[in-house]
Structures
1.
Amino acid sequence: MLNLNGIGKRFGGLTALEGISFNVGKGSITGIIGPNGAGKTTLFNVATGIYPPSEGAVKLEGKDISTLPPEGRARLGLVRTFQNIELFGKMTVLENVMVGLHTQSSSGIFSSAFRMPWQMSEERRIREKAKEWLAFVGIPELEDVEAGTLSFGKGRLLEIARAMALEPKLLLMDEPAAGLNSSETAELADLIKKIRDLGVTVALVEHDMDLVMDICDQLVVLNLGTMLAEGTPREIQDNQAVITAYLGEE
Amino acid sequence: MKSDKLKFLVFCLVVLIAPLPLAGGYLTSVLIFVGINGILALGLNLLLGYAGQISLGQAAFFGLGAYGSGVLTTMYAVNPWLAMIIVAICVAIFAFAIGFPVLRLKGHYLAMATLGVGVIANIAFNETIALTGGPSGLSGIPNLSIGGFNFDTDLKNYYLVWSFALVMVLLSLNLVNSRFGRGLRAIHDSEVAARVMGVNARLMKVQVFTLSAFISAIAGSLYCHVMTFISPTTFSFHVSVELLTMIVIGGLGSVYGSILGALLLTMLPEILRTFHDFDIIFYGLLLVSMTIYLPGGLVRGIPALFRRLMPTRGANA
């Protein structure tokens, strides 16, 4: 599904990533873990087109998307959520999800201003779709609430609903469990599995090891901008290099 | 949805009967300018209030509209309605072209760049004397007319300008509650998230900039035909700032707020006239107190104020 080949990213003289290569298998849940400052979020930003890689290539289903901006990648079915939640705070919850349906609708300035019949029916269609996604993540009752007033946990669910509205092939989640309590994290784990069962490939950056070990099929470990290990959760748990990176040497 | 339609109908009704008690007096002509400023403020509000992109160069598009119509109708005897359409489209194309480089900038830099556009346009109005008449202005612009009906009195012009304003209010209301409007508001709240959702932020910003220029040009054409005389001072930097003040006071991101702001700021100088040059102090006080006490503008502030006052009044009674 997603193929990273020799990714490097430098900010001036600082090398944030170097020689990162791995595959995210179709239909899998891949976890990207590593200590703070390992380059996980930078890798995400490169994968989603927030900034281009200094070297190497990002491929989605075999297609090179290294230089494509985020909106172009969204159209190809690659979408992400953010570590600190990036909602459209002054819009309602339902409207947030409706923005997620942007790529699946086409009305422009003229048809909207003049309320053409096809624009009206498209509007009804995406409104219904948006409601379905709110129900999917379990917050249908919040549709008229201003998104900026949501709690962190509900905001995260909304972000997932909004991302899922794009009907992505690949969903990248940046620390989805950050700021959630343990019961919310357990619900999140179920939700992520439900998303995988819809046929969406998931890759996530995460610090919560219980969550990662529970839901991930494959793990990639980063340390200081390089790849430390790759394998199943069980293999990673027994990997000496990983243990050293996390706990330090004796 | 139903209350939105009702609100618009009430608004239409108010506009319809407002000039009747004035019997075509001086205040009618003031209300014409409220309408023109309202259209201009609405254009700016779509750009700044909804998409979050500032422009201090609205006077340029306003002026290009006015001078375009003025020159075409006086020197080339083009039909005024046709001229209005041609000019608005040309101004829109111009805005679209400069929009791509200008809207790459953000915040203060965008303000500076659009300010530059406004200043350059004003210099052009002053210096291209052969076309515009320069500082002494362009006169003899015909009134608009339909068939044999000539818009030659204040009352007729009032209804002319306000029918344009009402149509623009309606179209804007439709627009902001659509896929396009949601895209703009999304860009305002979080551009990076909007782009990740597949919103082509760069194109949309240019589109709304173009739309706002188009609307300003129409206001310019109306202005020149209502006044029959135009000069560069009307399209100076001062106007751009006044428009900004209007939408801040009326309500950023509110269609009706644009009109309310235009009403207040157009009427205020009439009221403050007795204070001569000290009126600038009132503007300052108004802006400062608005941003401190009613940051959402009057359209949001007044209902909120009522909600706060009502229960206490009930308790006292």
2.
Amino acid sequence: MSERRLLRPETQARLRALADRRLSAREVSAALDRPITDDERDEVRALVAWFRRRYPTPLERLTYARLAYRRWRASGAS
Amino acid sequence: MQGTEFDEAEFFRSVAASGARALLIGRRALVVLGLPVLTADYDFWIHGDDIGAFNEAAGPFGLLPTHTPEEARQRGRFALQNDEMVDVLVARSVSTVDGVRVSFEEVWSRRRPVRLGPTVSVSLPSLDDLILTKRFAARPKDLEDIRLLQVLKTEDER
């Protein structure tokens, strides 16, 4: 049985602040100027192909996303 | 109404039937396009004159506005919430982090209707405009999303 380890609230808040921070124009430019590699492109293509095959209609994909988020929240993540 | 009972198809049908000029943006738009990303909220960008119609469409689903239409217009955004959360941008235009001014009217004029299911549709921005909206907040995850959308765009253009 696995033990669930929860982050302390202040650590969660710090991580959230980092994840939600607005990047500078320079940071955005640097990140987007980085070329998309063939591997990255292939990975995205495979992901999209799987998702569209598994959930053929957009409505099915939306339902999947809603339930996936609920599962993620129920797992103790935030 | 509990979010678990939320009828997504009916919600989108109600929004479409309301006549509100409403664009689905944010990660839910990526999901519609076929990108499996994790997201908590629905994000819409709507015309400021259509707040009332949009709220009426959401009302039957127990989604209550956080602000009056007048307040929302002044703030440029508001939310509708119960167990579900709908973030609504109502600003006429928004600047990206690198200073590009993006107007709702222009994005609306380039919208693409997407059929969600047999009897329900939603309006999405064009891929280029969706990428621009990801540069509004410019968080790290927005940059990840932009790269995903850029791959999708090259696939569309092939």
